[in-house]
Amino acid sequence: MRHGKKIAILGAGESGIGSAVLARKMGYEVFVSDAGRIPEKYRTELVDRGIAYEEGGHSFERLGEAGEVIKSPGIPPNASVVAYLRKAGVPITAEIDFAGRYTKAMIIGITGSNGKTTTTLLMHHLLKKAGLKAGVGGNVGTSFARQVAEGDQDYFVLELSSFQLDDMRDFRTHIAILTNITPDHLDRYENRFENYVDAKFRILRNQRETDSFIYCLDDAGTRKGLESHRPVARQYPFSIREQVACGAYLEDDRLIIKTEKNTFNMTIAELALQGKHNVYNSMAAAIAAKVLDLRNEVVRESLGDFKNVAHRLEHVGKIQGIEFINDSKATNVNATWYALGSMTTPVVWIAGGVDKGNDYSMLKPVVREKVRAIVCLGKENGKIHDAFEDDVDIIVNTLSAREAVGVAYHLAAKGDTVLLSPACASFDLFKNYEDRGNQFKEAVRQL
Predict the structure, then answer these.
(1) Which class is 98-305 in CATH?
(2) How far is the C-alpha of 231 from the C-alpha of 236, rounded, in Å?
(3) Do 12 and 34 meet the contact criterion of CB atoms below 8 Å apart?
């Protein structure tokens, strides 16, 4: 028999453990269940807090006794345990929905295929510079639920993946930012791009007319989504191709931000984040800042002194005149397209990993123009060979970051750039993209 004061947590990663901590604080009897092995730091925390758990499999019947199950976003909707719970009529809730019940903070939610981490951290930087009490989390850093449990904020800036949005029911973003939508994670969405677009547009769910929706007018995926999703919130598009009445655009070399209340501008040369993709990220964050009526001086200073996130076009060093750049966070084709497009020297490109249904055709022109050689870093490299064998003369397979860096170093000439921008997930050879990036950086240091 189900009990309303019992909460079960599916998945013992940061999202799941954060949910368990918040549920315990709110007086629930909590049980955590993970199909795999729980990381030691989380297992220790569960023991220290006296929270019951299991690992290496799910006890379906015990989970079915819960009044509510909070599912970690990484667990797919077709998992057998999820199917069992739905058939049993057990409510399944997303972490963001659960945490959202216990905060009165203004929520700034940011999603998109690329740029969401940078935009999230930049937005948080703006709020902190303005002296506001603001937390940052979601798909980056500490989970939303844990932060609510450990002390509420006046603002939360949350990076929201499509997986987090999939299970969203009651959660509301007061300011929603959609950076772009390009094919990614299609294996989770029946290999249908329109399903992935629908997932991203869930960020608009529960918004009201007084809320704000900030989006890229230049992005084809977003424009396609707007044909079937009608925002009720105030809309603030941003573009580098055309002027907009309310939002952001470029005028010569100046970034123009217009809201109902005021206008702000600064030269793009003043931006800390350079490159076309980062102009978009700066536009999105600046619009949100002006919607919140932050002072122009704060916005200008913040956009000018922000330090970018690790593993995103991160300069590692220069050896014998060869530049090494870590873009391990580029786990899809569009992110790599931006990275290659921003290169101003010949490139030895390190690519590969777990392919998520990638279509490499959009990369072919920029690869022909800029790439000297490709170093594959992954177990299955056939699609990369097939895609680019007519575009570059040298494609080499490697199975470790150290090997990839060594091969790339010997293939590069003075004045070239060795760019790790995989366009693929990392789980064949690495724990995650951070591990891949860190191993790349360590290999460069050992040259």
Answers:
(1) alpha beta
(2) 11
(3) yes
